[in-house]
Amino acid sequence: MSTINDIKKIDEKTIITIGNFDGLHKGHQELIKRSVSCAKNNNLKSVVFTFSNHPLNFFRPNSIKNIITNKEKINILKSFGVDIIINIVFNEDMTKISSYDFVEKTLVEKLNAKKIVVGHDFTFGRNKEGDVKTLIDLSKKFNFEVDVIEEINILKRRISSTYIRELIKDGYVDKINDYLGRNYNVSGKVIHARKIGRTIGFPTANMLVDESILIPKNGIYATKVFIKDKEFIGATNIGFNPTVNGKNLSIETNILDFDEDIYGEIIKIEFLERIRDEKKFSGIDELKKQLKKDVNFIRNKYIENIF
Questions:
Q1: What single string gives the DSSP state of each residue in 48-71?
Q2: Is the pLDDT score of 116 beyond 80?
Q3: pLDDT tens figures, 53-97
Q4: Right CATH for 2-150 from 3.40.50.620, 3.20.20.70, 3.40.50.720, 3.30.420.40
């Protein structure tokens, strides 16, 4: 398996899947699996052609937050057994190439495409001038096959990155696994903060998260916490800590049954469910009582399995 950051000549015959794969949800996964399976059965190399940045952010910088980091996307693609990942920057050159030239110069001449697998709503070329029909028409001229995957519905809902993004924004993290095939997660370095949680008996790991990643709605969440390949359960607060006059958004996790110095470590949290809204309490004592309730609920459900 190889990952390349430009478009190089491939001598071996290939089957190619193309897309931004925003979030790599189950619909995207079906495309990848179909390509890999076909490649193995027909002596082809499976190629995923994707972008290291979201194309919408090229046209409108910072207009959309990512569901997945580029590194995580590459790792997931590797896990599916893809032979070659072409992971390029979506730039001005990509906006200028015609659909015809993209097929002829890139897919056929450079990438040696013998089959292309795309979703039903696939578009390509400048101003999205090319679509599935365009691709099928050109396949006849350049002698390759096209496999179109129709929309996939789960729980009577079409899988889409837009819908998954809405679930994250609204805090419905317990529903995301149905569409992503995994829990929504964020990673970041544990940093020093005000340390108020430690003074009231609820020490927290405060995370510095990549600003390009979409953060769930403010509130208290049950989470899985991964530290140096070890897994814990946590109570994660996303918000401004209004009871103690916090001014900046923070992501901080009280890691249950854990008491080690992890400042500077990179940790990952997976969101299991949203417990409640963040709120301003009358004082520290009321805050402590609520935090105890939150932790007990999470412990009982996810560690002791009482519920």
A1: EEEESS-HHHHHSTT-S-BSS-HH
A2: yes
A3: 999 998 999 899 999 999 999 999 999 999 999 999 999 999 999
A4: 3.40.50.620
